[in-house]
Write a structure and sequence with these properties.
By secondary structure, this protein is α/β, with parallel strands linked by helices. Helix content is 28%, strand content 32%. The protein has nine helices and 17 strands. It has helices at residues 49-59, 99-115, 144-155, 184-195, 210-220, 262-273, 292-298, 314-317, 328-339; strands at residues 2-6, 9-18, 21-30, 40-44, 66-70, 76-80, 88-92, 120-125, 159-163, 178-181, 200-204, 223-233, 236-243, 250-258, 278-286, 303-307, 322-325. The strands form four sheets. The protein has a seven-stranded mixed β-sheet with strand order 13-12-11-14-15-16-17, sandwiched between helices. Strand 7 (88-92), helix 2 (99-115) and strand 8 form a beta-alpha-beta unit. Helix 1 crosses helix 9 (328-339). The termini are far apart.
């Protein structure tokens, strides 16, 4: 039997005699890994160590040994401290603040694993930064979400696992498989415990989030409302009009992320004027930059429910209105099923 190699896969050729005629057979396999399942290995950058530790605990797989640091001039430095040849590697790293540093860490880690001959490399990004720049809204601007997708692919990622993309079409920016799971099951479990079958309206803060809000409204058997939002500039909202019934009801604002909280707090004020008796906010990604915490504390919002895709800063941790839920088991289960080549469609709620 003689092997020949094509890329990172090998084909084993055998000539079999058959009464005067020969037959050529081919058995495909991974070079140097014939008949063996690739080891699951999990590595993490510096974007969210607590979430990485929770995922590691869920999977009962220790985090891999790697040095992810900076040189004295600020350049990122990555060194993998263990053998990953032929392994199924998952790299946990969001591009939350500091976004540029975390993105560069991810790219360098992907390149390091590619050059170390990992069999498959999955970029696990609980929060995909630059996602809001997904199209040209004015002339002469970049489509940054596409550029980041290209960088991740070229750096060496074989596939991508993320949570609650800002817009679903970003999956099409990648030339590799993308799994976009949702934090909805975690949020729904918590909301069901809090609502006690009271009358509820799920509110989308803009037209783009209607599909997300409708999915939650359907599962909670709640009504749906939409806020018509007019922007005058980035992070600046001029006016809001509510389409739907919120008077004397619990209004739950649902969005994929909260950044400066301008939209969220203005929506809460508008809902209060329309007679909502209680206002709750829900989001997957608590970016919470700039004046976000101050705005949240001063607005009529009673609670903001977030997940731990992004670690909260000290100011956010001290805000009594913010409730954090863990999505470690969701991401961990997606990793397990991906590694074992099982379907993860049941996680797409």
């Amino acid at each position: 039997m003689a092997p020949f190699t094509e890329g990172r896969r090998s084909c084993f050729l055998a000539v079999e005699g058959d009464g005067g005629s020969d037959r050529l057979t081919c058995t495909a396999g991974v070079a140097g890994n014939m008949g063996r399942t690739a080891d699951l290995k999990i590595f993490a950058g510096n974007s969210n160590p607590p979430l990485a530790a929770e995922i590691s605990q869920y999977l009962k797989v220790p985090l891999g040994k790697a040095t992810v640091d900076t040189f004295s001039d600020g350049e990122s430095k990555v060194e993998i401290k263990e053998n990953v040849r032929g392994a199924d590697v998952f790299v946990l790293q969001s591009t939350s603040a500091p976004g540029n540093n975390n993105l560069m860490e991810l790219l360098l880690m992907l390149d390091a694993f590619k050059r170390a001959s990992a069999q498959r490399i999955t970029a696990v990004m609980p929060y995909y930064g630059y996602a809001r720049q997904d199209r040209k809204v004015v002339p002469r601007v970049p489509i940054s979400a596409k550029l980041v997708a290209d960088l991740i692919t070229r750096a060496g990622a074989s596939r991508m696992l993320t949570m609650d993309l800002h817009s679903g079409q970003i999956q099409g920016f990648f030339d590799i498989p993308v799994d976009n799971v949702y934090a909805t099951p975690v949020l729904l479990d918590y909301l069901r415990q809090q609502l006690n079958n009271t009358e509820v309206t799920i509110v989308s803060p803009d037209a783009g989030g209607v599909e997300r809000a409708r999915a939650i409204a359907t599962r909670l058997d709640a009504s749906l409302a939409i806020i018509d939002k007019r922007r005058v500039g980035p992070n600046v909202v001029a006016e809001m009009n509510i389409i739907g019934e919120v008077k004397d009801r619990i209004a739950i604002l649902v969005d994929d992320m909260v950044d400066t909280a301008g939209t969220l707090t203005m929506a809460a004020e508008a809902l209060k004027k329309e007679g909502a008796k209680k206002i709750i906010g829900c989001c997957s990604h608590p970016v919470l930059s700039g004046p976000a915490i101050k705005r949240i504390e001063e607005c009529p919002l009673e609670q903001l429910i977030v997940t731990n895709t992004i670690p909260l800063g000290p100011q956010a941790q001290g805000c009594g209105k913010i409730k954090t839920l863990s999505v470690a088991h969701l991401i961990g289960e997606a990793i397990r099923r991906t590694h074992e080549e099982e379907s993860i469609s049941s996680l797409f709620v």
